Amino acid sequence: MKNKKKVKPEQEKEAKSREDEFKKLREERDALQNEKDELLGKLQRVSADYANFQKRASKQISDSIAYEKEQIIRTLLPALDNFEHTFQNAHSAENADALIKGVRIIYDQMLDILKYHGVEQIKALGEHFDPSQHEAVMQRSEPDKQDNIVLEEFQKGYKLNDRVIRPTKVVVNKLASEEPPEEKQEETTEQTTDKFETVDEYETTDTE
Length: 208
Prior knowledge:
By secondary structure, this protein is an alpha+beta fold. The protein has a domain of about 55 residues: Nucleotide Exchange Factor Grpe, Chain A, domain 2. The protein has three helices and six strands. A hairpin with a 2-residue loop joins strand 4 and strand 5. The radius of gyration is 45 Å and the shape is elongated. The N and C termini lie far apart (about 165 Å).
């Protein structure tokens, strides 16, 4: 029988050290794999939650818009009812003034409804022209009024929560511009110089 080869203590120690190192690496690999699986699971859950959130948010927005539309329509119905009553009673109205008065009441009611929803008319008549709120469609010159004043409204403008949704179409006062004083002074000086030159020429001719 052959004798077994004896392993040196140094070799045995080195082999054990390598085995421990491999074992440690396997443990680290397993830990990383578990961590990866856990993160992947969390990512999948977050992705599913986000997809569900998008669906819910889209439905909530649609429901909110539908609700707001319904509320606006509900507030407009009384004004529409009044229009119908006015048309039904138009033939029996004593005069045109009574009919106009009824229409005016409905007009004011419509303005109140718009105001309830944050909509207000833009003031323009007699105000200084403001390009952020007014749209000039014509210019006119009235000397007794200030320059750049709104003289007439062609179409009402409106704001929603202080944001312009339609500017007011207006006629603006535009006065003729006067010549600057410096130019007038230069013209006067030139005229005076020409006058003196003419007098000098006359005197010279007379002397000869």
